[in-house]
Amino acid sequence: MTTLAGALDVTAVRADFPILTESVNGEPLVYLDSAATSQKPRVVLDAERAFLEHENAAVHRGAHTLAAEATESFEDARAAVARFVGAGPESIVWTSGATSALNLVAYAIGNASIAGGPLALTRGDEIVVTEAEHHANLIPWQQLAARTGATLRHIPVHDDGTLDLVTAADLIGERTRIVAFPHVSNVLGIVNPVADLVALARSAGALTVLDACQSAPHLPLDLPALGVDLAAFSGHKMLGPYGIGALYGRGEVLDALPPVLTGGSMVTTVTLDAAEFLPAPQKFEAGTQPVSQAIGLAAAVRYLDHLGMQNVHERERVLEKRLRDGVRSIPGIRLLGDTDVADRVALCAFDVDGVHAHDVGQVLDARGIAVRVGHHCAQPLHRRFDMTATVRASASVFTTEAEIDTFLDALSGVRAFFGVRR
User: Fold this and answer.
1) Which of 8, 165, 377, 408 is catalytic?
2) What CDD domains does the database record attribute to this sequence (predicted)?
């Protein structure tokens, strides 16, 4: 698909998303919750439906024509998603989402720690994460540390939300075995310094694991060029279906990881006493795979490729500035990660003084505006800023300046609505 040149035609893009014509509470839908789950363009809906209507069969299992066609489409989808992140198809493992992918890695390393090998952890080894993690890139490492006796350490964030790289350099050392971190914070919207963290990890001989959920939909992404060993992303956050995601891994790392789920389709030879496994990625794909969802995700990345990810990023930089400048200009609102020095995506989280986040969300919802409220699966980060909940607004390729302005207008009246004067 040919990449579009220049600025995005947002009107044309919006026409591709059927749900954007809906009304909510009698108001036109203003969808500002893409960081939680994105809306799907018609080509994604059509691709998944077309597969189910015309090619549906078990992949990698049948010798009949329909099964061969289904397998070809399934593997073409893997190749399309791999190209989107700058990788080869052998580097992409299908999962049900990023949470599944990150748990796969943690449990595989746990298995390696039992069996021994280059990725094994022992008591006294260290796993380093950040204070800005989504729970999906924190709890698996907590559990792995508990199972292996490793120590979990974290890189703090500054008051402006940026990572404390001085402390990171002190933390990452000879006992560090894993460094896991988000490419983009799902609360702060800040693009983290991947190159710096990868360099620190490499100097210690540590494995790097990237949470790319909030970067894959918004930034040009070349995972091999970033130098990370492993990365996870979810389809439903990047215009694709639910129930599909991917684990990217460098070949030698995937080869060293033992399988976690076992069963059919990931073996070469099975006896009553033992089994031999296929090479990666198939050794991680036991049982029935999310085939139609993979087809839908491939349609999503082709759609994003057509728009051009640099175009997407430049467009969203405009929206991000309008969104953040507007929020910070409203009295009584505290914006988390309020810094101009870092690269960002169009996402911000904030606290409205005197009004609980859930109440803010209800007022906005009455105007047809969908935002996220709560801790956004990042309780430690909220605790860092002495908060239990915030409101998060997040844009996507279909968001307009007018929608941002509608949101800001509604937000500016929230404190008065609740009679908050201070």
Assistant:
1) 377
2) SufS_like
